[in-house]
Amino acid sequence: MAEEGADAQDGSGGGGGGGGVDVHVVSMLDEVAWLTNLRGSDVPNTPTVLAYAVVTTDTAVLYVSVDKVGDAVAAALKSEGVEIRPYEAVLEDVAAAAAARKRVWLDPASTSVAVFDAACGKVAGATDGPNEARVVLKPTPISLFKAVKNEAELEGMRAAHVESFRAAQAGFLFPSFETISGVGPNGAVIHYSATKARSTTTVTTAEMYLLDSGGQYVDGTTDVTRTCHFGSPTRHERACFTRVLQGHIALSRMVFPSGTTGQMLDSFARRPLWEVGLDYGHGTGHGVGAGLNVHEGPQAISWRPGAGKAALHAGMIVSNEPGYYQEGEGGFGIRIENLVEVVEVDTKHRFKEGPHLGFKELTLVPLDRGLVLTEMLSAEEVAWVDAYHGRVRAEVGPALAPDDRVAYEWLRVNTEPLVPIA
């Protein structure tokens, strides 16, 4: 397992090989959840359980509070060869592996000092000398395996995005992160949260409004941002929104060869802003788990050093969220965020072996058409917006029409073509 995992990680631009490793300690909660197919509610906004997993070439042990595991779950895990041990026993067992001179694989990005010390034999009662030379510090291969979703996970994510219009519906668990809701200059604070230190503001018809929200559903995870104006936006506000939209469309329409990294794509979303000297200070996209963390790696679309270095593969899910933030008096924030699935694309030619890739929208929420300066868009960009809105109406509309005619009418009006058909 260690050799296979290391090879997979090498292929994604990760660390070197882990051949000959005896024990793999899994510390990241979403990786433990993915590995065991278990979900829980120990961590806010994320359906994970406080647990460790330790995997060898022929055994797997889940370390978790035993009272959290019901009989049916315990039986299912046992049938798959997974042993359950108390959460607190992980340090003792890792220390025992060190005492037995086992090679232990740890992920440096997620391993605690306590687990590292146990793997090195630096614990009370250790008698056989330090094991530090036998500890392998390499990124876990599980992150890449988890990032490439299987068809069942993708179907769940698609279903969650069609039905995720309210929390009161069946299958909703809890928000996937703390909602970001900013009016006017508060919207320019990228992760704004109303507190006593930051005065709350009422939504009015005079200022821009940015809403970034998401949910954890039985089927999957959502994360969507929309920027709206409920009055008459200035031409500057509309021009800024339109440039952000152009960057969003440019990334959405990208077709790129297999092996392309997120760093290579980031600038395409920024170009319309760069042309007039504007920019945004965050990455363009982050990976998203399927019923797991709303932020996951290794996939990302970002210029930042250390981010966006993993090659994108079909089945990965990332966000597409360029923005612009004008601070100070009269300030506002703009962000347009969809989650997208990396898919294979048929191309007329193929320069090298391997498929070309592109993106398909998972998020199905109308854009504020009143903020778009249509004259700034090319014919292809107008066609993209109209096609996207047509898909929103076709796929979300049936879920609204039987029970909520008011919501369906709102959807119908807000998915009309940008340029009326003569």
From TrEMBL:
GO terms for cellular component: cytoplasm. Residues 356-418 form the Peptidase M24 C-terminal domain. This is Peptidase M24 domain-containing protein. Signal peptide: none annotated. It comes from the Eukaryota. PANTHER family: XAA-PRO AMINOPEPTIDASE 1. The keyword Transferase does not apply. Keywords: Hydrolase, Manganese, Metal-binding. The keyword DNA-binding does not apply. Residues 159-343 form the Peptidase M24 domain. One of its GO terms (molecular function) is metalloaminopeptidase activity.
